[in-house]
Design brief:
- The structure holds two protein chains of two kinds.
- Chain A has 24 helices and 15 strands.
- By secondary structure, chain A is of the alpha/beta class.
- The relative contact order of chain A is 0.11.
- By secondary structure, chain B is an alpha+beta fold.
- Chain B folds into two domains: about 120 residues, Ubiquitin-like (UB roll) (Roll), CATH 3.10.20.740; about 70 residues, Alpha-Beta Plaits, CATH 3.30.70.
- The radius of gyration of chain B is 18 Å and the shape is globular.
- In chain B, the strands form three sheets. A five-stranded mixed β-sheet of chain B has the order 2-1-5-3-4, sandwiched between helices.
- In chain B, β7 and β8 form a beta hairpin.
- In chain B, α2 crosses α3.
- Classes of the chains: A alpha/beta, B alpha+beta.
- Chains A and B meet through α1, α3, α4, α20 and α21 of A and α2, α4 and β7 of B.
C-alpha cells in the first residue's frame, strides 16, 4: 500500500483537530507575532497544545520563512519577487540593506529593527514593494519613504473586465448557490454541469475541475467525511490575481467552495491564504460571517438541508505550499513538503480524508456555471476552444498595469499592447514571463502567440496563473536566470534530491562570475525535469530553456 | 494479480505492488537511496526511475503502482542518467566522501559515479554529536533521505526525529535539536540501522 506521508502524524493531527486543538503552525505563528522569534519554550507549548511530538514541531519551526526570520520592534519586509526585480534589478533590496546595515533575515543587535525577504507581496502593479510593519507601500520612492518612517498604504488599481458579461469581476450575488438549492438541482447534476462546462484548473496544470470532483465524490464509502480546499497560497511572484479575488470578491470564492461541497458531498471547506497578503484572511472571514448571518453557510443553507461551513487558515511563507500535497500538510500544521502521489488528495487528502484541492480562481468560476449553465460558460471565449474567461495581471513595467478579465484565445500582443498599453516611459518589451516562475519566457518576437493553454505550451510557456511580467529592453537575461534560480533554490521544500541540490547548483552556475558550461547546465535541467517530485523542480527549467533558446548570447555560456 | 514484464522477465506481483517490488521480484537491481522495504515508500531520492513502455518519461519505481501488462526497463537510459546525476549531486553536498561500507558509497560505485559535475557548497563540517551513549549524529553526512525519521515514526513509534530546514539546508534532528539524549529517543537503533551514509551511527561498546 502506498502511503507516502506519515500516516501516523496525519492521524494524530486529525484527532486533535476534532478536539478543536490549534495546529502547531498556528501556535508557532502566534509566538513569532508576539515575541519576534521562536524559543524552545514556544515549541514545547506548541507541542502540548497541538498534540504534535516535540521533534515534529521543531521541524515545522525550521521550515517556514515567517518563523525563521527574526523580528525587531520594527519589522521591514522587502519584496524580492519577479515584478520587483523587473522594476529595479533588486536595487531596492540593496538600498534597504545598506541603509539598515542588515542582511536579509537579520535583526539589529538592539532589537529595534529587522529586515526580511518576502516573495511576493502582490503589489506587482506598483513595484517595488515593501512591507513596513503592517503597511504595504510600493512605488518608485518607496525606499525613501520607508527610510524616513513615512510608509503609506499603496493603492491598488481597480480591476477591469473586457467581457460583455463578466464572470469573475462581477459583484457576487450568490445566484449560483441560490439556483442550485432553490431549484433542488441534484449534486450529480451540478457535477455533470461542471464537467460539461470543462472548467480547467487555473492554477497551472489546467486539470479539469469536474474530473477532480468526480474522483473525490466517488472516493471512500458512504458517510466518509470529505473536504474542499481552496488553494489561496499559489504565490507565483508577479501574480496578484488570487489576492484580488480573495480581497475584493471573497463571497464568490466561498460560494464556489459551497457549490463544490454540494457536488462532492463535503460539509466543510478550507481556504489556505497567504501570509504575504495580510488583508486576505480578514476579508474572507468577514465574508464568511456575513454568509452565515444570511443563511448562505451553516447547518441548513437556504433551508435546503445542505450543511456547509468554511475555515480560513493563513500560511507562513513558503512557495511550494502552493503544491496540493504540501498545501494539505501546511493546513495540518506540518512541514509544507511535497508528498509523492498516489495517493491523490481526492483519495486521501486533508486528515487522510477524500479532498478536492482547487485553485481560488477555479472555484470562482463555479458560481457562473451553476447559475447560467455550461453553454453560457463556453460562449465566453468565442475565439478559443477553452471555456470561460481568465484573469490576467500585468507588472509595473506596463503603462496600465492591473487585473483584467479577458477571453481566452486573444493574442499576447493584444494583451500587452492594447490592454496594458505597452510599456511605460517609451520602453520596449524584451520578453514576457507568463504564469509565474515555472512558466516559460516568450520573447517579444513571439507576442502574436495566442493566450491559451495549448498555444503557449507549444512555445515552451504556460498559461499558468495568468500573471504577465514584462522585462524591458534594459534587462540582462543572465540576471533573469540568476534571479529565477535563486528563487527556485530558496523555495525548494528540500524533499526530493534533484530540486534540493540541483536548484542550488543551477543558481551557483549563474551567480558565479564565470561562463556557464552549457553541457553541464543542460544535464542539470534534464535531471530536474525528469527527476523532481513536483512541479517546482520540474518546472524551474522551463524559463531557463526559454532563455537558452531565445537569448543564448546573453547568458554567458561556454 | 497484475502480471508485468521486467527487462524481458515475466513476473506476477501483488495487486498493491510497486514497480520497484516488481523489479526486485524479477531479480533486477534498481538504484535507491531513500527506500527501505520496512518503511512506506517516500519518493525523495529519485534514483529509482525506470522506463515504462508507453510512458514518455521514466517513472519513479518506488512510488508507482504496477498495472497489469506493464513492460519495464530498469536500465532505461534517461532513468539511469537521472540516477547518475542524483548520486553526483548527493556526493557534492557532502564535505567528505562517504565511507566505503555505506549504502550511498555502494550505489555510487555500482553506477560508476566518480567526480560530481556540479561541485559547490557542501554541508558545513561540524564535530560529531556524541552526547548520547549509544547513538551519534554526524549532521554533515545527512542526505535528507528521511529514512531515520520514518524508522522512528513507522517502526518504533517514538517520533523522536524530524526533518529540519528547507531546500539545501534540510537535515535531521532529534527532539528540539538538543541531541538524542534530551529527546524522546529510546535508543532502539532503527535510525542508525537504516542510515545510508553514517550520518547516524551506533556507538560501539565493544573493542
Amino acid at each position: 500500500m502506498l502511503e507516502t506521508m506519515s500516516k501516523n502524524l496525519v492521524e494524530l493531527v486529525r484527532r486533535h483537530h476534532t478536539l478543536d486543538a490549534p495546529s502547531a503552525l498556528d501556535v508557532l505563528k502566534e509566538a513569532v507575532e508576539l515575541r519576534g522569534e521562536i524559543t524552545d519554550a514556544d515549541r514545547r507549548e506548541a507541542a502540548q497544545r497541538s498534540g504534535l511530538p516535540e521533534a515534529a514541531v521543531y521541524g515545522v519551526s525550521t521550515f517556514y520563512d515567517d518563523l525563521l526570520q527574526p523580528r525587531g520592534e520594527r519589522h521591514v519586509r522587502v519584496c524580492t519577487g519577479t515584478a520587483c526585480f523587473a522594476a529595479t534589478g533588486d536595487a531596492h533590496v540593496d538600498a534597504l540593506r545598506e541603509a539598515f546595515g542588515l542582511g536579509l533575515g537579520e535583526r539589529a543587535a538592539d532589537g529595534s529593527v529587522s529586515l526580511a525577504e518576502t516573495v511576493c507581496l502582490g503589489f506587482c502593479h506598483s513595484s517595488p514593494a515593501v512591507r513596513d510593519g503592517d503597511t504595504i507601500d510600493a512605488g518608485e520612492d518607496v525606499v525613501a519613504r520607508v527610510l524616513s518612517g513615512s510608509a503609506r498604504p499603496a493603492a491598488e488599481p481597480a480591476w477591469v473586465s473586457l467581457l460583455d458579461e463578466p464572470v469573475l469581476t462581477r459583484p457576487p450575488d450568490w445566484s449560483g448557490l441560490r439556483r442550485v438549492l432553490n431549484e433542488r438541482i441534484a449534486p450529480e447534476a451540478l457535477l455533470e454541469e461542471v464537467k460539461a462546462a470543462d472548467v480547467r484548473g487555473r492554477g497551472g496544470a489546467g486539470f479539469p475541475a469536474g474530473t477532480k470532483w468526480q474522483f473525490a465524490r466517488a472516493a471512500g464509502g458512504d458517510g466518509v467525511q470529505k473536504f474542499i480546499v481552496a488553494n489561496g497560497d499559489e504565490g507565483d511572484p508577479g501574480s496578484y490575481i488570487d489576492k484580488y479575488l480573495m480581497e475584493r470578491s471573497p463571497e464568490l470564492l466561498i460560494e464556489g467552495l459551497a457549490l463544490a461541497g454540494y457536488a462532492v458531498g463535503a460539509a466543510h471547506g478550507f481556504v489556505l491564504c497567504r501570509s504575504e497578503y495580510p488583508r486576505s484572511k480578514p476579508a474572507l472571514e468577514a465574508a464568511a460571517e456575513r454568509a452565515q448571518a444570511d443563511g448562505l453557510l451553516g447547518d441548513d443553507v437556504l433551508g435546503s438541508g445542505f450543511a456547509f461551513d468554511v475555515t480560513i487558515v493563513e500560511g507562513a511563507g513558503s512557495y511550494v505550499v502552493g503544491e496540493e500535497t504540501a498545501l494539505l500538510a501546511c493546513l495540518e500544521g506540518l512541514r509544507g513538503t511535497v508528498s509523492a502521489r498516489p495517493p491523490f488528495p481526492a483519495q486521501e487528502g486533508l486528515y487522510g480524508r477524500p479532498t478536492v484541492v482547487n485553485n481560488v480562481e477555479t472555484l470562482c468560476n463555479i458560481p457562473f456555471v451553476a447559475a447560467r449553465g455550461a453553454a453560457a460558460y463556453h460562449a465566453l471565449s468565442p475565439a478559443s476552444d477553452t471555456a470561460g474567461s481568465k484573469l490576467v495581471c500585468f507588472n509595473e513595467r506596463f503603462a496600465r498595469p492591473g487585473v483584467y478579465e479577458v477571453p481566452f484565445g486573444v493574442s499576447m500582443r493584444w494583451l500587452c499592447d492594447e490592454v496594458a498599453d505597452g510599456l511605460r516611459d517609451g520602453r520596449a518589451i524584451k520578453a514576457v514571463q507568463i504564469g509565474g516562475p515555472l512558466g516559460g519566457i516568450l520573447p517579444a518576437s513571439l507576442l502574436d502567440t495566442p493566450f491559451d493553454f495549448d498555444a503557449l505550451a507549444a512555445e515552451g510557456c504556460m498559461l499558468g496563473h495568468g500573471g504577465i511580467v514584462a522585462f524591458d529592453d534594459a534587462t540582462s537575461m543572465r540576471d533573469v536566470a540568476r534571479h529565477l534560480l535563486r528563487f527556485g533554490a530558496h523555495e525548494s521544500c528540500g524533499k526530493c534530491f534533484p530540486c534540493r541540490i540541483g536548484l542550488r547548483r543551477a543558481h551557483a552556475l549563474f551567480a558565479a562570475d564565470a561562463p556557464v558550461d552549457r553541457g553541464r547546465l543542460e544535464a542539470l535541467l534534464e535531471t530536474l525535469e525528469l527527476g523532481s517530485l513536483c512541479a517546482h523542480g520540474g518546472g524551474m527549467p522551463a524559463p531557463i530553456r526559454s532563455l537558452l533558446k531565445h537569448f543564448p548570447d546573453e547568458l554567458g555560456l561556454a | 494479480m497484475p502480471a508485468v514484464t521486467v527487462d524481458g522477465v515475466a513476473v506476477e506481483v501483488a495487486a498493491s505492488a510497486t514497480l520497484l517490488e516488481a523489479a526486485r521480484a524479477a531479480g533486477r537491481w534498481v538504484p535507491t537511496l531513500c527506500f527501505d522495504a520496512r518503511q512506506a515508500p517516500f519518493g525523495a531520492c529519485r534514483a529509482c526511475l525506470v522506463g515504462v513502455e508507453g510512458s514518455a518519461a521514466p517513472l519513479p519505481a518506488c512510488t508507482t503502482p504496477c498495472r497489469d501488462g506493464m513492460v519495464l526497463d530498469t536500465e532505461d537510459p534517461a532513468g539511469r542518467r537521472v540516477a547518475h546525476a542524483v548520486v553526483e549531486l548527493v556526493l557534492s553536498e557532502l564535505p567528505q566522501a562517504p565511507a566505503p561500507h555505506t549504502e550511498l558509497a555502494q550505489v555510487a560505485q555500482r553506477l560508476g559515479v566518480e567526480e560530481p559535475r556540479w561541485p559547490g557548497e557542501t554541508h558545513a563540517p561540524q564535530p560529531a554529536d556524541t552526547r548520547h551513549p549509544y547513538l551519534a549524529f554526524q549532521h554533515e553526512l545527512c542526505i535528507s533521505c528521511g529514512r531515520c525519521v520514518r524508522a522512528c515514526d513507522e517502526l518504533q513509534g517514538t517520533f523522536a526525529l524530524t526533518a529540519t530546514g528547507r531546500g539545501f539546508e534540510a537535515n535531521v534532528a532529534a527532539g528540539l535539536d538538543e541531541g538524542f539524549r534530551a529527546s524522546a529517543c529510546v535508543a532502539c537503533g532503527a535510525c542508525a540501522d537504516t542510515c545510508p551514509t553514517d550520518a547516524i551511527t551506533e556507538v560501539s561498546l565493544l573493542p
